[in-house]
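The authors assume throughout that readers already know how a fold can be written as discrete tokens. For illustration, here is how one protein appears when written out as sequence plus structure tokens.
>
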Amino acid sequence: MIIILFIIGLLLIIKGGDWFVDAASWIAEKSGIPKFIIGATIVSIATTLPELIVSIIAAVEGHGLLASGDEVAALESVDMAIGNAIGSVNANSGLIMAISLIFMPAVIKRKEFWVKPVLLMATIVVLFLASLKGELTPIGSIFVLLMLVLFFVENTISAKKQMNLPTEDDIEEQQVEEEIIEAKGILKKFATKHEILANIIMFILGAAGIVIGARLLVDKGTQIAVMLKVPTKIIALTMVAIGTSLPELVTTISALVKKQSDLSVGNIFGANLIDMALILPVCSFIFGAGLPVNNNVLYLDMAFAFGLVAIAVIPTIIRGKFSRIQGFALFATYVVYIVLSSILHL
């Protein structure tokens, strides 16, 4: 029954995240927020909601357990929060991006590509330095959050530049809209009211699905770890981390089917930066006393996170394109990471 509930949690997160993204994007667009702002903020954050909610719940539980005097159980919850966030980054890079590059290496423009990945690598370095004393304090978290602010500023500026360059599709779309605007007539009001109600319901159900699914994922993931006598950190780094990265996997598969591999790669870089620069600082603020970060997290998890991003970024900047070899290298490195994590955390 525990495993069934764990799987239900995963399914709720996947479907809930899907509904939430669609509804949030629609609401933002209808409220008059420019599309480039939607792409630069809402979509990026929404795809990382599963990781964010799972880690927040684990951090809240850890804070409560610490306040009640159960320090051992509190540290277990903290392991779940940290392991899920960093584990998701490594799963995104070493598994999901690997799949994308192996089957269809993305075509990129070097001038537009390098900023976000380099910013991601810088974020990992800042997070590492902020955690060197064995904990991520609220003050250290502020410096990490500044990297997230830089990401959104850069993302917004870049998107705005692209928006100012109309494409043939934009022109055709505008012509079509002008031709059919009169055909909407009376039906427009009905459709608008129907859309509003449908999207509000989707928004609420999506958010509820994410929250409930995340709760099941954390609770049942911990119970499975206890049953199998496997450290909570291992469960967080593998089952939970990969599970909460499924929205990115679905996005990648969809992009590959539509032959838009550059979209999947961009989504992964954005999701990784948000995982690092938003989730862990938020968990640190919730935990209050400074989020404990042990040496395995510093010198194994974060080191591999940096290494995986470097494999994906440095050759691409030098050569101006991705290659399938990078995909295989990412996957092989991820396998090594999982094996080492399993050995060191046992």
User: Anything to note?
Assistant: The chain has one domain: 2-345.
